[in-house]
Amino acid sequence: MARESGEAGALKSCEVRKRTKRKSKKESKSRIVCSNVAYERARGAEEPHKHYANNKIKTTKYTLLSFLPKNLFEQFHRFANVYFVFIALLNFVPVVNAFQPVLALAPVIFILSVTAIKDLWEDYRRHRSDKEINHMDCLVYCKSQRRYVEKYWKQVCVGDFVRLRCNEILPADVLLLSSSDPDGLCHIETATLDGESNLKQRQVVRRFLDLDCEFDPTKYDSVIECERPNNDLGRFRGYIIHRNGKRDGLNKENLLLRGCTIRNTEEAVGIVIYAGHETKSMLNNNGPRYKRSKLERQMNIDVFWCVIILLVMCLFSAIGHGLWVFQYGETRPVFDVLGPEGTDLSPALSAVYLFLTMIIVFQVLIPISLFVSIEIVKICQVYIIHQDVELYDEETDSHLQCRALNITEDLGQMQYIFSDKTGTLTENKMVFRRCAVVGIEYSHDANARRLAMYQELDSEEEDCLSQGGTLPRRDSASSHQSARVVLRSQSTKSHRRTGSRAEAKRASILSKHTAFSSPMEKDVTPDPQLLDKVNDCASQMEFMRLHAQPLTQLPSELSDIIDFFVALAICNTVVVSSPDQPRQKVRMRFELKSPVKTIEDFIKRFTPSRLTSGSNSSSSSSLATRSSAPRAGSSLLSSPSAEGTLLKLEEENSPGPLEGSFRAVPAHSVSEEAELRYEAESPDEAALVYAARAYKCALVGRLPDQVTVELPHLGKLTFELLHTLGFDSTRKRMSVVVRHPLTDEITVYTKGADSVIMDLLRPPTSDDTKGKRQRKTLYKTQNYLNLYAANGLRTLCIAKKVLSKEDYAAWLKSHLAGETAIQGREELLFESALRLETDLQLLGATGIEDRLQDGVPEAIASLRKAGLQIWVLTGDKQETAINIAYACKLLDPEEEIITLNADSQEACAVLLEESLHYIRSKFLCDAPEQASRALQDDPSSLPVLVHRLGLVIDGRTLAYALDSSLEDRFLAVARSCRSVLCCRSTPLQKSMVVKLVRNKLKVMTLAIGDGANDVSMIQVADVGVGISGQEGMQAVMASDFALPRFQYLQKLLLVHGHWCYSRLANMILYFFYKNAMFVALIFWYQFYCGFSGSAMIDQWFLIFFNLMFSAFPQLITGTLDKDVSAETLQDRPQLYMSGQNSEEYKPYMFWMNMIDAFYQSLVCFFIPYFAYSDSDADLFSWGTPITSLALLTILLHLGIETKTWTWLNWASIAFSVALFLAIALFYNASCPSCYPPSNPYWTIQRQLANPLFYLLCLITPVAALLPRYFYRACQGTLFPGPVQVGRQLDRLPPEARRSASGQTKVTGGHHFAPRPPLYHIPGFFCNHGAEGYKKREAPTDSAREGAGLSAGITAGGGWGPDAPRGGLPPEVDTLLHSQGEASDGRLYANAAVGPSGFSLADRATPPPPFTQHECVPLTPSATCVQRAPGGEGLGLPPSTATRPEGGAVTSTADSLETTLL
Amino acid sequence: MMASGYSAKEEDGHLPGASGAAGSGVAKSKKPDNTAFKQQRLPAWQPILTAGTVLPAFFVIGLIFIPIGIGLYVTSNNIKEFEIDYTGADMSSPCFNCSQSSSWNSTWPCRCSIAFTLDQPFESNVFMYYGLSNFYQNHRRYVKSRDDSQLNGDKSSLKNPSKECEPYRTSDNKPIAPCGAIANSLFNDTLELFYIDPNGTRTQIPLMKKGIAWWTDKHVKFRNPGGTNLNLSTVFQGTAKPVNWHKSVYELDADLENNGFINEDFIVWMRTAALPTFRKLYRIIQKKSNMTPTLPRGNYTLDITYNYPVLSFEGRKRMILSTISWMGGKNPFLGLAYITVGSVCFFLGVVLLIIHHKYGNRNNSADIPN
């Protein structure tokens, strides 16, 4: 559509376009929105946006009127329903009819109506939730009242102005026009959309930002043109045309999406752009999908077989009938009645008619009620899973949700689990654990204890805790606590924050005011030693400041400590807010000033001339304020070393910033008691800031141009923020450039992954003491880093650099050039960042724990024992992912790890080939041993043995490996590995991996994740599980099941999955059996009625047999039967394999059941046949006993198959028999002349008076069930399956069971038995073994460690006998090395890192760990690193420990190049 | 859906009603009830089928079934039964001529008599049956071909029989009473039994023709139209007799209590047999006194009025004399079945005992694969 430039009046053009739009609605590519307020003033007649959806949402499928036709239409999509209706209609054809037509319709109608009622109920629930949402309130500007009035969501229209207050949910997609935030920002939480719980900033449309006064909707007269509604959450394009014809572009930064929550912004006003179903969130909401479970697919095959059996039976009967008619020839016997028209049918024609008749008679073989019964059973199963109290999470007050109702049994058949890491395995709560500053480790024992306490508190009752009584309190912070409590409860209405973690966590989740701010994350207990040093240092600094001593006199260690914490506090993008002004950022009195933007700006700021010229520019005005401050004394503080340069730049004004920093305390905003809240983009940042605060180095304010930090003794210091080089994944670091207020130096603080930072450090210059010390620091820090990583901590290095003003000016110049460059801007900026971040001085390292969720290692271990392959797909970096994988026992320390990192397709191909070769040679060469081990350990019938290997692959390589040419090889490698870890994978890759495995390996896959990035994977997998804890709802929305925690997956799969599967499998088999058995009775009868389609079973019984008489017991059994108790299932995860291998329902079982059914029906037919042969029994006097004893047989058959008899089973069986008798008695007594043709008046009554009836009912079921009963008994004794053994275990008294399970655990244990570690310090482990035992490890694991360790002594200091190198076949080994020589010299070190069950971190000063490397560079572009399975190899050989100096050189050299896996 | 997600989570009081009404601030926990049913912890009996546990059941079944079987077998053997085929398919048979000549259209009754000898006296009441073989009374279209409401005396059905009776619904535009193929093919042979004294005199044995039908059939299900109106010919006026019948329905018997639709021979016939070989009760020979047997040992003649053609469909006609016991007529099958099943159970019990002895005691708990 052509756009005319709207000079005259945008409104007018809006109308014009509206009209054109109406004409050419289809062609229009954009949407035009103008203000409703202004519009009414101008025209008042026609609603401008009436073609846009309003905000009322309707997710229901039906209306009252459309329900019946629409529902029927949907139901007839199921083929079975069509089939049954067809059969029922066939009955209306007189030639072929078998039953009374109306009666034949009954079951179909019954089934259809049951389903319809279910649908109706579901739709009603949707309707109710819609209504609730539609009636939520929001403030909409009212034209007549000229103010914002409360309206329901559904009344909001496109073009309305809505005012949003803090913590409100957005009712529609809104263009942000005004915000109470002075910067025109508005923070939103998008957790409901993409699952990210951190805050996102949105900006007011630029022109409205400049408005001085409050936004007034009546004055708004711009027109917005934007793209049509689409479902891309990350994109919004359009522009706004102002009255004066100027345009502003709009992007996604201006749009607030429906479903998000406003945070940290007092008030925002916006205009509705998309409403209702056109909002992006609704367009993204595709509703539930219909999934078909594996069992159901298998069942459908057997339904198909049933159809074939049916057709064969019908055909047989038809031919039989034809022959029967034929044998009489021309003379027609009296009993062969002519057709209604009196026509004589030829044998062939009567056979054809009979064929159709038989289809009707035998229709029961296709179990009409099977589908509906399965649905009922599944709903009951879902209900019961919902009710499981063990799947209920107290902390979040949430329990498991089954969102897909029809795949419960799939849970019992999973083979592969694809898991997200962050938030799924871990809590996504970063907790500061420990740090090393200038080479000295501060282990933070108290902090560790505090964390342990949280863990224990989890299990304790809340009321055991008096208000924080047992909580470890920070002596310094406790004063904050009470105040905080008050503030919290005011601002969030939530309950108190202290007390048990459970409650606190719930409160934090409910309120969600601040991401990443549970008390566990916030309250860091400082290490006393370090705290002393900080205090010491600060007081010295204060002293020096007072005494005008230069700061360089400070011991460098102390100044580094201060620097370290300053870096922690400021090197981030954390926004500070205070609770007494909960919706506003803390404002300093300085006006907004952006970072240095231009050279002029730089010169202005850094030259004295600014003072004289600075009367109108904002920067100088701020400096003018500073300059008014007293200067006395502060100049003395400036560092003499910097003085030379400083003086050049700011001759007289050196005290300015310092002084300003002292006064930068707005009394109103930050009081001593008020607690500041940090809004961080990533949890790591928050953790570091909280850690810094614990050392009284608190970040109190952040503005675009300055950061304020409060230091002990020194008060608040304001750092002028010159630049922020944000974090990116290639650099793996971020930097801030600040001007240090104390020294006035330009300082770069860098924080980043240790692997990168270590490369960027300034090499130690000389051999003097300083250089030595530096090297030593470096070496020690590296060791600590390794130690942290070994403990599964996320490591970060902190470094700084002091820039001279000249250097800075030079850098700034090029940087600005890069910023303004049009082409290759990103690269230029990247390079500029690289230039800045060099020659760093290492300050220290931190270890942050991304705490594993409770029970994750145990859950993984038991899921793995259950034969499930667990793949972790994470977006995280390789190092972190591996650490976590170790921590959660996904990788085993003595497992070899194949790492695939390739730069190109070819390299990836080579790598895969080599890995495959390696696996083959490694595991096939010593085949006998392996085979025997495999037999012992892993009897899973997988065709490919799963080796004790781990595979780590990064995202880039994964992209190559997923290429169609390599995917087979990739799979071949991956499937033979016990665990696979995909790092840095994109959401798309995640789903591709799942799809690949699912389609190629034909296995059942389960994907579990918590965030938006897992959605695609969750949708692709056979079963998607969402974690409904911390992050938003996106994953949950896409999932089939939502769990509060990962550990519940264990019970969900092992117990409920197993039960659901085995129940349903047995029920389906039983169904087939039941129907076949019943129908076969009639089939046998055809031999005795001239294949005429006659039935000795009354048609009523025939039709309602399935539906009523035999329905209830199987429903009860299908819902409640437990083959093995929940405890045993969890004790013996191996039992899960029965579901994986579909052992309950294999194809042959269908046929076995069919054969059994035919046998049983033969018995049930012929015993009465012979008993009544040549007697005066009439048709139904003979048929009724057969019906009765068939019912008994079928019920008793179910009895044999029922494993758990509760009163419900007894009641249901009794009820079934009683129901049959009652109905039969009533039916046979009700009407003497009705129910043609059988007219069974008084038949059952006479039978009940006949002793023969009872004699038949006694012998027939016994004879019919004898083989099955006998077989079951033999099976139970001679070759019991695992499940049966499990059942026998159930019977044991608890103690015996425990001992039995202990036994198996030990025998199962050597599966995980560690290899001897490489090095060993006896004392070290002796001291801490017990602690570890308590803390994390399963008892057996710990015991095994002990055993392994003692073996380690004999192994000595060399390569462990079982180290992978030893296991490497020579040719592979040399191959790898020759390639290594050809490589570009990049050194890939391989640190022996073990998860080490017990926490090394608890040791105050552990010996520096020695890392064992194995460098196996493969090709220039690709590396295949076999990680030495170090076990607890972190222990240092005593010799090395005594001479750390010597070891330091090599070790450091290595670690410099170390890419920690 | 999506919105319900967040609306449930939001607790800041923006929900209309939901949080405002509750007021108290006591959050309702979603914690499931910890009841036995919901946690699937109902007290349960968990039988495990192994040789050891099942084996008593087999022995018990065996021990119960074998005596029952023996008892049944003895009972059945005590029943006396005599059967004679009078189809006349054989040239040698006295009824050969009749069988050849008889057809549905023949109006002239053919008579023949067959002599037979009872080796043993029949002590108690003797039931006299006629048996038909190869007669598919259970044919689907045959079974349907009747109008129960007509037989129940419904006057409108009398004049307008059900469609199911086609093609035996009307004859000469008059409704057939009783309509349908079953009635049409009514067994119409007459059997008479004579005892030949050792001295040669023929005594006719009195045959009871009442009490052979079910009481409910006779008194509830089948009723003549017009109720107690004794003049059946007027009641049935305007109806035609079934095409194969020689006389009208109101001429079946002189006895008013046994005429029309409530004629017991007719009622018995209308109860269609289950299997193609069947017998139907024809008459009852009642025991006269305690001293003399109902049917003494000796020679008898069966006089047959041969009307019913069966040779066209290879059918056979029999006359059966039988005493009955509490379990009905003579049938050794059930007794044998009980004995067989009991023995098999017992045998399997022994097998299980051996299995149990050999394998039952090993500890299975270690068998779960790890």
Automatic annotation (TrEMBL), chain A:
Residues the entry annotates as binding Mg(2+): D420, T422, D1010, D1014
EC number: 7.6.2.1
NCBIfam families assigned: ATPase-Plipid (TIGR01652), ATPase_P-type (TIGR01494)
Active site feature: D420 (4-aspartylphosphate intermediate)
Enzyme class: translocase
Polar residues bias (residue ranges): 478-492, 1449-1461
GO molecular function: ATP binding; ATP hydrolysis activity; glycosylceramide flippase activity; magnesium ion binding
Species the sequence originates in: Paramormyrops kingsleyae
GO biological process: one example: phospholipid translocation
Binding annotation for ATP: D420, K421, T422, E685, F727, K751, R794, T874, G875, D876, R984, K990, N1013, D1014
Biased composition range(s): Low complexity: 610-629
Subcellular location: Endoplasmic reticulum membrane; Membrane
KW Transmembrane (keyword) present: yes
Region spans: Disordered: 1-29, 464-508, 610-640, 1338-1371, 1426-1461
Residue ranges crossing the lipid bilayer per the database entry: 79-96, 102-121, 303-328, 348-372, 1068-1088, 1100-1120, 1150-1170, 1182-1200, 1207-1228, 1248-1266
A single GO cellular-component term on record: phospholipid-translocating ATPase complex
Membrane topology, record value: Multi-pass membrane protein
Catalytic activity: ATP + H2O + phospholipidSide 1 = ADP + phosphate + phospholipidSide 2; a beta-D-glucosyl-(1<->1')-N-acylsphing-4-enine(out) + ATP + H2O = a beta-D-glucosyl-(1<->1')-N-acylsphing-4-enine(in) + ADP + phosphate + H(+)
Ranges of compositional bias, category Basic residues: 18-28
Record's keyword terms, sorted: ATP-binding, Endoplasmic reticulum, Magnesium, Membrane, Metal-binding, Nucleotide-binding, Translocase, Transmembrane, Transmembrane helix
Domain of life: Eukaryota
Domain P-type ATPase N-terminal: 48-104
Protein name stated in the entry: Phospholipid-transporting ATPase
Pfam families, per the entry: Cation_ATPase, PhoLip_ATPase_C, PhoLip_ATPase_N
Entry's family note: Belongs to the cation transport ATPase (P-type) (TC 3.A.3) family. Type IV subfamily.
Residue span, P-type ATPase C-terminal domain: 1036-1280
Cofactor(s) this protein cannot do without: Mg(2+)
TrEMBL record, chain B:
Record keywords, A-Z: Cell membrane, Cytoplasmic vesicle, Disulfide bond, Glycoprotein, Golgi apparatus, Lipid transport, Membrane, Transmembrane, Transmembrane helix, Transport
Membrane-traversing stretches: 48-74, 333-355
UniProt membrane topology term: Multi-pass membrane protein
Keyword flag Transmembrane: yes
Basic and acidic residues bias (residue ranges): 161-171
GO cellular component entries: apical plasma membrane; endoplasmic reticulum; Golgi apparatus; transport vesicle membrane
Region (Disordered): 1-31, 146-171
Biological process, per Gene Ontology: phospholipid translocation
Comp. bias (Low complexity): 17-27
Compartments reported by the entry: Apical cell membrane; Cytoplasmic vesicle, Secretory vesicle membrane; Golgi apparatus; Membrane
Biased composition annotated in UniProt, kind: Polar residues: 150-160
Domain of life from the UniProt record: Eukaryota
Primary location class: membrane
Keyword presence, Ribonucleoprotein: no
Protein family per UniProt: Belongs to the CDC50/LEM3 family.
The name this protein goes by in its record: Cell cycle control protein
Species whose genome carries this gene: Paramormyrops kingsleyae
Highest classification ranks of the organism: Eukaryota, Metazoa, Chordata, Craniata, Vertebrata
